[in-house]
Every structure is written in C-alpha cells, then in structure tokens.
Amino acid sequence: MRIVAVGLLAGLLAGCATTSGPKPVAASAPPPAALQGGSPEAEGEVKSTYHAWPGVPTVVSNVTIYDGKGGRIDGGAVRFEKGKVTAIGASVPTDGATVIDGTGKWVTPGIIDIHSHLGDYPAPGVPAHSDGNEVTSPVRPEVWAIHSVWPQDPNFSRALAGGVTVLHVLPGSANLFGGRGVTLKNVYGRTAQDMMMPDAPWTLKMACGENPKRVYGSRNQMPGTRMGNVAMMRQTWANARDYQQRMKAAKGPQKRDLQMETLAGVLDGKILVQNHCYRADEMANVIQLSKEFGYKVTAFHHAVEGYKIADLLRDNGICAAMWADWWGFKLESYDGIEENLPFFHASGGCAITHSDDADGIQRLNQETAKALSDGRKWGLQIRDEEAWTWIAINPAKALGIADKVGSLEPGKQADVVLWNGNPLSVYSRPEKVWIDGALMYDSNDPKRRPVSDFELGQPGEGDRK
Amino acid sequence: MRKILFALLMATSVPALAQERIAITGGKIITNNGAPIEGGTVLLNDGVVIGVSPGVSVPAGFTQVDATGKWVTPGVIAGLSQIGTAEIAGNSSTNDLSARRSPGTAALDLDVALNPAETSIPVTRQEGVTAAIVGPAPGRTLFAGQGFVLSLGEGVTAPLRSRAFQYVSYGERGSELAGGSRPAAWNELTNALEEAQRSMRGRKGERDLSQDPRLTPEDAEALTLVLRSAQPLLVRVDRASDIRQVLKLPRMYPGLRLVLVSANEGWLVADEIARAGVPVITLGMQNRPENFEYLGATMSNVGRMAAAGVKVALGTPDLDASFQPRNLPHYAGNMVAQARLPGGVGLTWDQAFASITKTPAEIFGLAGQGVLKQGARADVVIWSGDPLELSTQTEKVFIRGVPQNLESRQTRLARRYLPGRDRTQLPEAYTR
C-alpha cells in the first residue's frame, strides 16, 4: 500500500525496487550490502536485545473477548503458549495448560499506544530528564528516540498496570523533522534496546503547526510561519530525493549523511511517517507535499480536526491518532470535539486513541469508552468491540506491526490482558497482563508488579497500582 | 475594609431567567443525605428544592419531567478549576490565571477576569458540572491571589461568591518563586501573614520593608481576610515534610482556616492532617513521581486520607488538557475502582460522589449545595445512568431550577461536521 502511494513518481523510483517492498525490512537485515552504493541501512546498527520472559501454556476461559480487530466472543476462551496465541474461540484445548476461570471478566489484546514519550520525557520531569526534543534545528531526522529512552522510567510500570503492552516512543514536536520513533515492548530492561520490539519498522516523527514555527520563529529563525513550515519541509524532501538518487547511482562506499539516511528510508517506504498535525488545512497541505515528493504519511497524530476531513484521510489511507477530548489548550486545538474518534471511525477512517501523556496512557480504555459514548449520543452505532480496534489493530497497522500484535489470533504474539470487568467501564482494571506469553503484571500478586530502579527505596515503593 | 465586606455580601447573583415549577419523577435520586431513593420525586420551585420524596407525585402547577430509569443527583461542583478565566491556556491574551509582572499578588481578585462568554462554561456545564471553585495560579510570588465560586448557569454574569479564598503555592513552585529554597518560601509566607496581622491591628507604620519588599500594603490587607477567618487559605503542597510544615500555620494563626491543595503525599501524614481538621482538595489521579516532591504519589492517596478521617474533595488544580473539570465524575469513579483492586485503598461510591458534590460545598461553606433536600439550591442533573460511569451522558441540567441549554461551541461543531452530511450544495460554513 505504501508503494502505491508513491506511484506518482514511480519512474524516478524505479531503481529502488529491490529495497522498497511493502513489508518493512527486519532490524536484523544485513547492513553491508545496503551500504554499497544503495540506500544506507543504518537500521541494522541499533539492534533489539528484547527477549520474552518465561511463561507457561495458559488458557483463560469463560470470558468475554474483544479480539482487537472488531470481533467479540461471549463466554469464550483463549490459549497461548511459547509466547504466541495458539487458539481462540468458544472453547479451546486445555491440555497441559494452566487454566484461569475468567467468569465475569474480559480478555483483550494488550493495548498499543502509538504516541508516547515515556522514557524520553521520563518521571520525574526535571530538566535533566528533558530528552524528547532536539531543539537545535527544525530539521533533525538524524536523532533517534531510542537513544533518549531511559529504561528506568517509573511511568512504564503505570502504563503496564493500565494494560499497555506495546508503546511507540516518539521525539517531540518542536521540530519539523523530529527524528526516529521506536516501538517498545512494555517490559523493563537494563537498556532501551532490551525493550525494543524486534522487527518493528522505524518511524519518522514530523510536525506541522504552531510548535515548530513558535520554537524557531521566536529565535528569528525559519520556520516562523506555517508557510515557512511547509517550505522547509519541501526543501528538505527535495534534498532527500537528490540524495536518494545520488546514492543509487553511486559506485562504492559513500560518505554517510545520517539525516538523509532516515529521509531516504521514508522515500523507500521502509520508515513510516508519524506526523503531528492538528488542523484540517495543515493535514491537507502535508498530504499534498507527500505526494509531490513520493512518500506516504502513515498516521496523523493529534488530528484534533480529523473529523472535518475524515474522508480525505480515509481516501488517502492515512490513520488518525487522536485524544478523546483534549481541546482548547492552544489555538490549533480550539476546535477539538469529544466526537472526533467516533466521527472519524464512522466515516470509514482508521481511528486510533492515543495518549501523548504519561497519565493518559494508563487509561486508554477509559479514553476510548468516553469517546464511544459521545459518538453514540449522536446515534452512531458503534459496538464496544469495534471501538476496541482504536487501541488494538488500528495502532498496530499504523506502526507496521499488525502481523505480530494488535489482535488475538493464532500465531500472534501473546500480549493479553485479563480485565476484572468490562474494560470500557470506569470501575475495571487489568487483573493480569501477559507480554509474549509471560505474566508481567498481576494485581493479585505484588511480586508481579515491577518497580523501577528509581523508585526502589523511595516513599511508597511497590505501592504501584 | 468595609468595601471588601460589602463586596462579599453583594457577590451572589441570580440569573434573570424564567423560573419553572418542576417535578422530576421516577428517577434514582442520590441525595447525598441518606440512602438513594428509587423512583422518587424531586420538586423544584423558585430555584430551590422544595421536596424530595419516595414515589411519584406531581402537585398542581408543576411541570413533570420523567426521569424513569435515570439517575437524579445534585450538580457536580468542581473542587478547584480555572473555568471562565482562561479561554485558551497557551494564548496569553486569554489566560488571566497568573500575573508574573504585576506588583500585586495576594490582593489580586481573579473574579475580575471572569468571562461569562467563555466557551469552557457551556462545555463543562453540559457534562453536569453546575458550580466550580475557580482559583488563580502564582505569578510573581507564591501568593497567587483570591479565587471565587462560580455558578455555571446560563446568564450568570458575576461569581456566586467573590474573594472566596486566598491561594498560595508552597513546595517546589513556592520555593522557586520565593527566591530558590523552602526556607525562603516559609519566610515569605509567614512574613506576609505577620504583616497582615500588623495591618489588621492598624499599625501599618511598623512594617519593616527590608523583611519583604515585595509585599504591597494592598496585599497585606488582602491577607487579613485569611487571618480573620473571612476566607480560607488554600495552600498547594505535596511533599509529606512540606505538608507537616504548612500544618503549623493554623497553630500559629488561630483564625486561619487552612485547606491543602494537591497533597499528593498526604497519605504519608494522613493522621496529622486529620488531627488538624484540615480538608484537602486534590486531583486524586496523580500516581506518578512526576516531581521530586511527590515521589510517594499513589492512586490510593485519596482513599487513605479519607480512611484517616480527612475530608477530601476532587478538583483540577492545574489547567491541563489531561485532566478537565468536566471529567471529575470519572475521576471519582476511578477512586471507586481503586477500592476494588487488591491492596488498593479508594472510596465507596457514596464517598466518591460526595467528593465532587457535597464535600467541596462543605469545604467552602456553600450552604444548601451538593445535596438534594428541602431548601437546597436547585442545581440538579438527570443522568442516563450512573454519573461516575464513562458511558453515561447528562440528559437534563437544572441550575437554580432553570433548565439549561446543553449546547456548546463543541456540539455546534459536531453537528456541522456530522458523518454522512450532505456536501453537495454548500460548504460547511453555511450550516448552523
């Protein structure tokens, strides 16, 4: 799909057919070949060291299941072992498995937050921890969020207690080109690489609107206006196209340009653009310029005015990651409405509930429930299990990991949440959270609740729910 | 001084809207004054609740509003908020919460900023919030100034109560504003109160400007209200040791009515807060060590303080998109959920609902608010179901007995951009 979108410039891109398959290149792809004159493959230089922790074959039965892709099973069961879901249905084989009776409870796939700054703006939020915006130039595609992620951020444990199993950590929005985002499994490690989800594509954070023009305009630098934002994006993409073509034509090793490597990765369809943008008109501007330069915006983030142009985004195959009800904190969020998610969904769009917030990430189920209710107020018929796609398969699609997570299906990673009630109720909480089949959180067992190094020996240590 | 007292007396305003005699029948009535009444009747007349009774009975001359299957409750009161004083937080021309470059501090009256046309008022009202405590943020010093009580009723042009409290930031923020340390903050706070005491005794001449050149005579005079129990002193404070320090204030100044704001580590000193008889207004949702002054933050904070006997109301101390006053019922619901978690301490449903209705009314002495009983102010909400639940919507809101329009700028935008709308004839700009 990503390649279809660059069809406009297919002639110019013909030379990169071998590197532009629709599936992202795995993190383990060998870099040397790619460095030989083609598009450089820095991807291989940051490797995931994540591994699943031990689990046992497990069956959760007699539960209501929201499968994450819009389906629901009442009185159903799910089985997982060796880190993968192996069966789901009205009943599943129980041989050799620990069976958990989930009567009165719910099971969902783990929540995926497509927009987080955990680790790169960790708690405590003191200046020494402010690692999310490389505010030294509006064009910083060479920085990678993974290199700011502090794996001891106490916030990861709170998100886990809220059922979040996968989160996408992005650079901030001060820059037009903010740098690469990284997809993490929400499992504490000693290094950020220990948390990296294997084989998840890299992403590029971009931003339009008030933030870049304010940050740089106030320094009397470009961009100082919205038109400045767009002009600078276009010039940067033009440079990237030149670079891409030069590299394809080049013989032998070339001097590396880390900025251009990321941008060329986008033009090659391997790096997914996650674009911060609030207003409808600005999203339209970005869509046009993406076509001019032959790349695809995978998702607009915040998209506070997504409801105004849901058809445009739908027709261009672009998801919108939105808050349930944030509005009015700055002028470009003034037209925020509580119905953004349900209206976008009802218009046939790929709607995603995101947090962008260390508090909101703990309650993405509640944010989704609120928005769902606000949609129903207008008579929209959206089922509970359908709304769950906003925090399951839809963010998985927009992160290029829908083949691995985002729904409960045989063969997918066993990121599973058992809720103590309907997860769309304010009164419900995760009871157990498994990641890759390992029990990483259990509300009944304090030993299955992580405490980061930072909180060890502090007031209230282990008091984390 | 007489001027101030006059203002306090005259500050209540009654909207000049038509009063109706209304009988709300058949609903589950939460009175905050005893057990819920299933299928009862609430009578509203002349802005006042004149009866709450079991069974359905509609006296002659009353318009019946059928609430069968619905919940009927007192309106939500935001224990602390910024409603009506900051249209767009990030746009300084519309944000009146703080004044970094003003010589005045404690004397500032936030009610001067009240803009009845602010869009957040209908946006918040439509979710069942009928009144709010509105407070400033500190600007030049740790004294932020005086806040007010707002009725969110249509047509309201003045606060329900002006100069309802004085607001001070202690802890990290206060220290920074006082010059860089907690001792400096404590010094500034107590110096100002001493100065107010001198001002109250009419001995202004004794003021030692070298002690605190930043306190104007007007600020000192404003603080006499705090010392004379004419308004409570709200102190924002989080760290357990800072709370202990602030709890000394009522012992030092016997007329001072202290209310703690935020108190994210309150659970560590809950017994001391309870013994001091000091109430707390807090978000309740802060469970992360976002600042060093609340490394002990936990979702059990509210529950533990309440269990120790502290009176706790919920509010939104910061203007923050993450936590909006219109969602206070959900935060109360989260307190109930916390009680159901193994090892968690939260609130019962009744306590939780009181924390967004009756308790803030009690803390600010808003007689007849936050409850449904004879003589209570007729701020009443009819909900589609449990008001703390995410799927619940408001169906009708009455403020002083007047049915409120539940439209807002947001519902107008939603209607204009409904999915499936016809785009063939005219642009959206022609849809109103």
From TrEMBL, chain A:
Q: Which domain of life is it from?
A: Bacteria
Which Gene Ontology biological process is one annotated for this entry? purine nucleobase catabolic process
Q: What GO terms are given for molecular function?
A: allantoinase activity
**Could you say which residues form the signal peptide?**
1-19
Q: Which GO terms describe its cellular component?
A: cytoplasm
Q: Which UniProt keywords apply?
A: Hydrolase, Signal
Instruction: Write out the ranges of the annotated region (Disordered).
Output: 21-45, 445-465
Recorded hits in Pfam families, A to Z, give:
Amidohydro_1 (PF01979)
The Amidohydrolase-related domain is annotated at 385-434
Q: What is this protein called?
A: Amidohydrolase
Automatic annotation (TrEMBL), chain B:
Keyword list (alphabetical) reads: Hydrolase, Signal
Q: Which domain of life is it from?
A: Bacteria
Q: Please give the Gene Ontology molecular function terms for this protein.
A: hydrolase activity, acting on carbon-nitrogen (but not peptide) bonds
Residue stretches making up the Amidohydrolase domain: 292-394
**What Pfam family does this protein match (any one)?**
Amidohydro_3
Q: Where is the signal peptide?
A: 1-18
Q: Which Gene3D superfamilies match?
A: Metal-dependent hydrolases, Urease, subunit C, domain 1
Question: What protein is this chain from?
Answer: Amidohydrolase family protein
Native source species: Sandaracinobacter neustonicus
Lineage in the entry? Bacteria, Pseudomonadati, Pseudomonadota, Alphaproteobacteria, Sphingomonadales
